[in-house]
Design brief:
447 residues, globular, Alpha-Beta Plaits, AMP-dep_synth/lig_dom, Rossmann fold, alpha/beta, Coenzyme F390 synthetase, five-stranded mixed sheet, ANL_N_sf
C-alpha cells in the first residue's frame, strides 16, 4: 500500500496561502515563508519584549536577509527564561490564557514559566488536528492518556483538536489503574491511543505473554512527552499489532514540534510555526546536514512569548533527503540524548537514560527502572532498581544484569576496573508511577 504524504504539508500550504504564498510546495516557498515570519518575530520581540529589546539591541530585523543570517544572532537559554519569564512577554498579562510551569531537573531548582495567549493555543490545536490525521479518521475513538482537567492543558487542547476532525476523544489522564484503563480500551472499542512510553509499556505488559483477557483492537498509537525507546515500540507492536508513531515536542515549542508520517522515518517538523537549527553544543556553530548536534528553534507565529534561537538541550539530527512519503518538509531523527542527562564515567565515556532504555526495556517483563551512579572505593558504582510485571520470572534479575553488561561503555569501564555493577534490585508490581523526568542520578560527591 502506498505511503500517504504527511498531512503537515497541506497544513503548511494553508498557512503559507494565508501569508501570501502559493502552491506547489517547494523548499524555496518554505524558506521564503520562514524568512518573512522570522523578520516579523524579531521585530515584535525587539519592540515589545523587555528581554529581547536588550538581548537583540545590536541585531535589528533588517540584518536578516537570509535564514543563514540568523546564525549570527544570540541564543536564548532555559536559564534566561528561569530568571524572569515576564520579561519575555510581548503582550499584557491580561492577554495570557495559560501559564505552564516546568520544574527544573538541574541543580538550581528554579522553574521555567511559559506563557500562551488564546491565539497561541489556537496554533497548537491547529497543529494537533493536522498532525493526528495520520493516525485517525472521522468516526474513530481515541484514548488520550495525558492530563486534561484544566482548560489549555495538553490533553484538553488535543481533545478539542480531535473533535474538529469528528473523532471521538476519551480524555483519560495519566494511567493510575492499568486494569481499569485496559477495560476502557476494550469496552469503548478504542482505535488509537496517545500516551507516555513507560505508562503504555506497563499496559502492554500487564498480562503475561499469550494471555488476552482484554480484547484490545488498536490501529495506531502516538507516544509522546518523553524519549521513545525502540525497545518499547517493538513490544507494543508485538502485543497489540498496531502501528506506533513518534512525536517530538516540548512545552517551550508550544507542545508540538514534529510528528512521524506513515513512513515512520523521522518526525516531519512543524515548519510553519517553528524554525529549527542543529548546532554544535560546544561552539554554537551549525553542523553539516545529517550530523548530530543540539536542537535549537525559533518561534515564527507566537505572539505572547516568542523565543529566538532557544537551546533545547536535545541531541538529534536532521534526516537528510526527501521522505519516502514524498514531502519536502524537514525531518528530525529521534532525540538520542539530553546534554544535561549524560553521566560521565571514571573510565571514559558516559551513560544516559536512552542507552539504558534500549537495553533494559528489551528484557521481558521490565516495566520501569531507576538508575544511579555513586562512588565506591575509587571506582564508580552503578545501581539499578527495576520494576517488573508480577508475572516476570526469577530469571529477570540475571537478564537485566546481562542487558547492562551488553552496553559497551558499561562493559568497558568494568574491564578497566573503573566501574562496579551493583546487585540488581527487582520489585514486582503492577502499580504505575506518575510520569516524571527520567534521569540517572549522579550521587558522586553527594554521599
Amino acid at each position: 500500500m502506498a505511503i500517504r504524504r504527511t498531512p503537515l504539508e497541506s497544513w503548511f500550504l494553508k498557512k503559507a496561502a494565508d501569508a501570501g504564498g502559493a502552491e506547489p510546495l517547494t523548499r524555496t516557498l518554505i524558506e521564503s515563508y520562514q524568512l518573512q515570519k522570522l523578520k516579523e518575530t524579531l521585530a515584535l520581540a525587539r519592540a515589545a519584549s523587555p528581554f529581547y529589546r536588550r538581548h537583540l539591541e545590536n541585531f535589528p530585523a533588517e540584518q536578516l536577509r537570509s535564514l543563514k543570517d540568523l546564525q549570527a544572532f544570540p541564543f536564548t537559554t532555559a536559564g534566561d527564561i528561569s530568571k524572569n519569564p515576564l520579561l519575555f512577554l510581548c503582550v499584557s498579562q491580561d492577554q495570557i490564557n495559560r501559564v505552564v510551569t516546568i520544574n527544573s531537573s538541574g541543580t538550581t531548582g528554579r522553574p521555567k514559566r511559559v506563557f500562551f495567549t488564546g491565539g497561541d493555543q489556537e496554533l497548537i490545536r491547529d497543529f494537533f488536528r493536522y498532525g493526528m490525521s495520520t493516525l485517525v479518521e472521522p468516526g474513530d475513538t481515541v484514548l488520550v492518556l495525558l492530563p486534561g482537567g484544566r482548560p489549555g492543558s495538553v490533553g484538553a487542547l488535543l481533545a478539542e483538536a480531535l473533535e474538529r476532525s469528528q473523532v471521538r476523544c476519551i480524555l483519560h489522564g495519566f494511567v493510575r489503574d492499568p486494569r481499569e484503563t485496559l477495560q476502557i480500551m476494550a469496552g469503548q472499542k478504542v482505535d488509537s491511543l496517545v500516551g507516555v512510553p513507560t505508562q503504555v509499556l506497563a499496559l502492554a505488559r500487564y498480562e503475561a505473554p499469550g494471555k488476552k483477557s482484554f480484547p484490545v483492537r488498536l490501529k495506531n498509537m502516538l507516544l509522546t512527552t518523553d524519549h521513545v525507546p525502540r525497545a518499547i515500540v517493538n513490544e507494543i507492536e508485538r502485543t497489540w499489532y498496531c502501528r506506533v508513531y513518534n512525536h517530538y515536542g516540548m512545552t517551550e515549542m508550544g507542545l508540538g514540534g514534529g510528528v512521524e508520517c506513515e513512513a515512520r522515518d523521522g518526525c516531519h517538523l512543524r515548519e510553519a510555526d517553528l524554525y529549527f537549527e542543529i548546532v554544535d553544543p560546544a561552539t554554537g556553530e551549525a553542523v553539516p546536514e545529517g550530523e548530530e548536534g543540539e536542537v535549537v528553534f525559533t518561534t515564527l507565529t507566537r505572539q505572547g512569548m516568542p523565543l529566538i534561537r532557544y537551546r533545547t538541550g536535545d541531541i538529534a539530527r536532521f534526516v537528510p533527503g526527501t521522505c519516502s512519503c514524498g514531502s519536502l518538509l524537514k525531518r528530525i531523527a529521534p532525540v538520542r540524548d539530553r546534554i544535561g542527562g549524560r553521566v560521565p564515567l571514571a573510565g571514559g565515556g558516559f551513560i544516559s537514560m536512552s542507552v539504558l532504555d534500549e537495553a533494559l526495556f528489551a528484557v521481558k517483563g521490565v516495566i520501569d527502572f531507576q538508575a544511579a551512579v555513586s562512588s565506591a572505593g575509587g571506582a564508580d558504582l552503578l545501581t539499578v532498581k527495576v520494576q517488573a510485571a508480577v508475572w516476570a520470572g526469577e530469571e529477570v534479575n540475571d537478564l537485566v544484569r546481562e542487558a547492562l553488561l551488553s552496553v559497551p561503555v558499561i562493559a568497558g569501564n568494568i574491564a578497566k576496573g573503573a566501574l562496579i555493577l551493583g546487585p540488581v534490585d527487582v520489585e514486582r508490581s503492577q502499580k504505575i508511577r506518575a510520569p516524571a523526568k527520567r534521569i540517572i542520578q549522579d550521587l558522586r560527591g553527594k554521599e
